Protein 1
Amino acid sequence: MILFRQELGDVLREARRSQGRTLRQVSSDARVSLGYLSEIERGQKEASSELLSSVTEALGMPLSFLLREVSDRIAAAEGMNIPDTVPEGLADDTESLVGAY
C-alpha cells in the first residue's frame, strides 16, 4: 500500500540531506520539535499544512515543489505516466474555471 505520509517523509529527508543539513538544524529553523520532525520524515506522523509550510520554508523550497514530488512518486508507484506538459486545451479550460470564481 502506498502511504502519502511515507512518500512525504522521504522527500523531506532527501531535500534536507541534499543540503547537508541536520534534522536539528531544520527543526530549529522551522520551529518544529526535533522528535516530531523525525517522525514526519520516517512517515510515522501526518503533517499539518502549517507544519509543511514551516518546514519547506526552512528548507528554502516551495510547498508546491514538495507536493509535486510526492505526487509524482505516488503516480509512479501506481504505474501512472504523468506528462510534464499541460495537454492542449486544458490550460484554456482551467482559466475559464478560475475566472468563474
Note: The domain at 4-99 is CATH 1.10.260.40 (434 Repressor (Amino-terminal Domain)).
Protein 2
Amino acid sequence: MSSTSNSPVALTGYAFATLLLIAFMMGANHVAARLAFDHGVDVATAVAFRSGVTALVVGLLVRYHRVGVQLTARHRRVLPMIGVLVAVQSLCLYSSVARLPVALALLAFNTYPLWTALWARVIYAHRPEPRVLRAMPVMLIGLALALDVFGAASGLGASSQWAEIGVGVGFALAAAATFGLALVLTQHEAADVDGRLRTATTMGMVAVLALIGVGTQGGFHLPQAPMGWVGLLGLTALYGTAFTIMFTVLPRLGVVGNSAIMNVEPVFALVLAWAVLGQTIALVQVAGGLLVVATVMWLGLRRR
C-alpha cells in the first residue's frame, strides 16, 4: 500500500511508462493467479506465497534504507487492523478471480473509490466530493454493462446469469469494500508511517493469516501440472516485482504509487486473459469496462 500525495504531479515519459509497467504486472499477476487456480492451487496458498515473498522483499528494502521502525501506540493499534483488512481483500479478490473472467473480477473490485467515500462518511463524517457523487451512477452503469447483469449479452437471462456470476461478484465487491476501509484507515491513522514499513508489516500480517488459512485446509494446495507452477511462480514474481518498483523507482520519480494511471490494470488483464486463458467477453461488456476504468481514472486525476 502506497502513500498518497496532496497535489498532482506532472509525469515524465519515463514515469508514465513505469506506471503502465506496474499496471501491466498487476494485471498479469491476476491472470497468472487464474492459471494457478485452474491447475490445483487454492486461494490461501496463492496469497501466502505472494504476500510472504513481497513482505520479505519490502522488509529487505526497509533494512537496506535503514527506515525507522518507531511506532506510536495508535500505529500499533491500527496497523494490525489494516493487515487483517488487506488479508480479507486479498483472499476475496483471488476468490473472485477464480470464479469470474479476470477482467470482470478486477472491474468489480475497481469500485473501491465508492467504498472509500462511504467509509470516510461513516467513520469520519466526511462528505463525499461532488465529483465522487457524479461518478457513482456512471461507474455503476459501466459495471452493470461489463457484468451483463441482465444476461442479455450471454443470452442466459438475469436469473441464470446471476447464478453464474453472483458468488464471484460478491467476492469482488467484498474485496472492494475491505480495501476501501483499509485505505481510509491508512489515510487517517497511519499516513505518517513510512510507506515501505507500512507495506512490509501489512504484507507480513497477510502472509501469516494466509498461512493460518493454509493450515486449516490441511496444508498447501500446490499445482498439479507444470502450467500451475508457471502461474504460482508468475503471480508471486509479478506482484513482488511491482511492489519493489513501487517503493524504489516511483519515489525517485516524484510519482505517488496509487496514481490513477495504474487503474488501467483491468484493460491489461482483459487482453492478457484473452491471450493466455482464452477468456472473452462481449463487446458491450468491453464498453462497460472501459467506462468503469475511465471513471476511476477521472476520479484519481482530480485535484485534491
Note: The chain is about 75% helix and 0% strand.
Protein 3
Amino acid sequence: MTAGHAFWETALALSVSFILGAIIGLERQYRQRTAGLRTNVLVAVGAAAFVDLGVRMGGNDGSVRVIAYVVSGIGFLGAGVIMKDGGQVRGLNTAATLWSTAAVGAFSGSGLTGEAMLVALFILAGNTLLRPLVEFIDRRPLNPETTEALYRMHVICHPENVSTARDLLADELEHHHYPIQDIETLSEGDDYIELAALLVPTSADPKELDIVSEHIARSPDVISATWSVSTTN
C-alpha cells in the first residue's frame, strides 16, 4: 500500500468517525447531557485514529491490541462522568454512550465503515426509541411485594427519646424477622429527630410493615412511625 493511498484511507476513517460521532453527540447535546457533541466526536475520532495507527504499524495483530487498550481506556473516561447525587447515581447512560461511541471509532479505524454506521444507528435507537418505554415503566406504581428495593422504617421522636426510639425500632423489626442493615438519622432539629432503619430484605409484605409501624407508633416515646420503599440507593 502506497503512502498516499494509506493517507486517504486514514482520512476516510477519521471523517466517518467524525460524522457518526457528531450524530450521536447531537442527540446527547440536545438533551443537555454531560458528554455532548464535542466529547462524542473526540471519542470516536480518537478511537479511530488509534486503531488506524495500529493497523498501519502492526497489521491485524497490532489493531487487535490497540482495540483492547481503547476499550479499557474508555472505561476510565466513562467512570469520570458517573456521579453520585445524594441517593442517586447519575451518568451511567452517558458513560455507556461514550463506550459505544468508541466502538464506532474502532470500526471506522479498522476500515469497516458499514459496521460503524450500524453501531451508530443502534446507539441512537437506544438513546431515543427506548426512551418512551423507559418513561412508561418509571411512571408505573411501585409494587412493594414484587420489586427488589430499599425499605426503610421511619420514626420521629423528641431529642431526649432518641435512644429509646432507636432500641424500640430495632426490637420491633427483629421481632417481625426483618434484620436491619443500619439505623441512620435523616433529620435533626431542636424539637424532633427522624430516624430511619434500612432493612436488609429487598422485598417485604406491606401489611407486615404497617403492623410494625403501628406498634412503634403506640409508644409514648415516639411521635410517629411509618415506612417507605425506593428503588435507588
Note: Strands lie at 83-85, 88-90, 150-157, 180-188, 193-199, 224-230.
